[in-house]
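Give me the fold.
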Amino acid sequence: MNPLRLHLLGLPNAPVSEKYSLDGFAAAGHRFSRMMKSLGHHVILYGAEGSDAPCSEFVQLISEKERTQLLGNAQYQHAIMDERYPLWQLGNSRGAAEVSRRKQAGDFLLTIGGWSQSPIFHFNPELLAVEYSIGYEGSFADHRVFESYAWMHESYGRQGIRDGRFFDTVIPVPFDPSHFPFADKPDDYFLYVGRLIERKGIGIACQAATAAGVKLKIIGHGGDTKFITGGHEYLGAVDWRLRNELMAKARAVFTPTIYLEPFNCAAVEAQMCGTPVISTDWGGFTETVEQGRTGFRCSYLGEFVRATRDVENLDRNYIRDRALAKYSMHVLRHDYDRYLNRLTKRWKAGWNALD
């Protein structure tokens, strides 16, 4: 397959870097750029100062001084993604101009920012527009990659799309296997990983652990410790290396999100470590958690309590092997490669292509 030219937009609130591990968008952008560059594609990355993702060319849109000034008191992982805000307005105006200077016929323009970066696309309408990992509301592009089928269908329903879209697809969130250690024999604790907000299920995790009489450690940010009950241990927002070590040694990881989760990275990251997941039974979990094999999807307190016992019977080697086969960036980069090359047919026969 021929190398493609990809204009990849980072978000203005954080550099495209693994150093910003609490910002899923920053980490996802880093992995995507790395995957596409490894396949020989020409990646032009646009973003905030400090972006360090592998690319063919980096174009700085936002300086560190501008970023911190325009974010105000908000931390980068809590920044509101909205084109009406000054930080996004500045990034969009510069992005539209810089893309226009570099674009060539047949180029792609890609974002993970949804509607917040749509002005850049409106200014460059002749490029193939792709949202490459949709786990958010507000998707708009002609070509969309969703993180799960559950979220694809939810998004279509929200937007009143009643028929399928032939050039959309689903590719799960990819991860770097080298980041996730494996522990054959876990320690005596369970782990909650997620924001400290009620809809992420922190209360359910605490209630279930208390009812089961098991030890629970909690990793999270962005909320209120009032949701932590039962005297369980709160570790704060730790860096990704310590978080992954704690996940690998946990008996299981709780991800009992109340809302329809588009994907939930923590559930898959736990499985990359070989650690079972205890989740709710909707949204992305229906695709990422294999019931009774890699974890348990639960519907009421008794099932959550029983899951804390039954996870002891699960094969942690199987859990890890399945996760590596389904979610490794070294596997999924080829799914992206096939999809983007499929989109090049839009320049010619499109749906009517017979090859």
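The chain has two domains: 5-174+328-352, 177-327.
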